[in-house]
Design goal:
Blueprint: H1 2-13, E1 20-23, E2 29-32, H2 55-63, E3 70-72, E4 90-96, H3 98-104, E5 124-129, E6 136-138, H4 157-160, E7 161-162, E8 165-166, E9 177-185, H5 186-189, E10 200-201, H6 203-213, E11 222-226, H7 240-244, E12 250-251, H8 253-262, E13 267-270, H9 288-296, E14 300-303, H10 308-313, E15 317-322, E16 339-341
Parallel strand pairs: 9-11, 10-12, 11-13, 13-14
Antiparallel strand pairs: 1-2, 3-16, 4-5, 6-14, 7-8, 9-15, 15-16
Length: 342
């Protein structure tokens, strides 16, 4: 009951002077306006801000569905799809085919002599891909910082990473996400099809877009920011030049802090490979927004989303659902199909 009351208070006080919005069963304040989330769930926590989801918050998110209309926010991919070089491509090869099964005869039970007189066979493929491929959900161990290579909650790469993957903050620590979602369509607000690479989204851009949409953010929301890059995705992202020309617009540090510390965003997403602006406008880190969100705040980042359907339909508030891959040791969710339900 205490968690439910705390969540309901969020909407009531989001614009007021009260800083206390969420409180866990132990009474500890989990989000403070102006400060954000931080490392507040204990020294062993690997979940971060997603701890704020409860049965009550999920039920409240589901109750806002009015039409049942579903928007697919994942990108279709094939072996020639655009990707950032640091994330790696997708390769797919057939692993079993009817021809191979029947000619190689490496399964006795599939042969006529073994009783398979009908000629039954099957087809399957082998995938070779990075765990940062396609529409992806950055885990809290994705980015490290400092001479000790630490990530969320002070975990260190030397202690938490083995030859066969992550032992802390891997994909299995990410719960299914069911929450209220908000689209901030910055590209449409700025009057362009897609923001140019290098454009830094400001706090004023976010506020202006929200005002134009008559939308608002509530603490605990999944906030998706549209830059417009994937209007060029087409069937499977084959126009690499058009995509590259619009890939590096994104959130500046001030905008990211406003979303998390001032508005209470629980997850941040976007439609580029990094969501933040590149190169960053202030030196000191190659990925300052990732460091702030993932490491300092425990806020996951969703990249390479298909936000075009929501933009076209002018749907700005919805129920958001995402279930990451449950691959032990992997950095986060990859090749995903999150959905928005109106």
């Amino acid at each position: 009951m205490k968690r439910m009351i705390s969540w309901l208070l969020a909407a009531a006080v989001a614009g007021g002077a009260c800083n206390t919005v969420f409180a866990g069963d132990d009474g500890m304040i989990k989000w403070k306006r102006g400060q954000g989330w931080g490392w507040v769930w204990g020294k062993d926590d690997q979940v971060g801000a997603l701890n704020e989801m409860t049965d009550a918050t999920r039920l409240a998110a589901m109750k806002q569905i009015t039409t049942g209309r579903v928007f697919d926010l994942g990108l279709p991919m094939d072996r020639n799809s655009y990707h950032w070089d640091g994330h790696g491509p997708l390769e797919l090869m057939m692993f079993r085919t009817p021809h191979g099964i029947k000619t190689m005869k490496d399964f006795d039970f599939m042969t006529p002599e073994g009783g398979n007189t009908s000629g039954t066979a099957w087809q399957s493929a082998q995938l070779f891909m990075s765990d940062n491929t396609g529409t992806k959900f950055d885990g809290l161990g994705h980015v490290t910082v400092g001479p000790d290579d630490h990530f969320y909650n002070g975990f260190k790469s030397a202690d938490a990473v083995g030859d066969f993957g992550m032992r802390k903050c891997d994909a299995t620590t990410i719960p299914p996400v069911i929450a209220r979602g908000v689209l901030i369509d910055v590209a449409t607000y700025k009057g362009v099809d897609s923001l140019p690479s290098g454009y830094e989204i400001t706090v004023d851009d976010l506020k202006g877009a929200l005002s134009a949409e008559h939308a608002s953010i509530k603490p605990g929301d999944v906030v998706l920011v549209r830059m417009g890059m994937n209007r060029y995705w087409g069937e499977a992202g084959h126009d690499h030049k058009a995509l590259e020309d619009h890939n590096y617009a994104g959130l500046g540090m001030a905008a990211a802090k406003w979303l998390i510390a001032d508005q209470g965003a629980m997850v941040i997403g976007g439609d580029t490979t990094g969501v933040e602006v590149y190169p960053p406008k202030k030196p000191g880190s190659s990925d300052p927004m990732h460091v702030y969100a993932l490491i300092e705040q425990g806020v996951h980042i969703i990249e390479m989303m298909n936000l075009e359907p929501l933009s076209t339909a002018k749907v700005y508030a919805f129920t958001f659902m995402l279930v990451p891959n449950d691959v032990r040791g992997s950095i986060g969710g990859f090749d995903l199909r999150p959905i928005a339900i109106q």
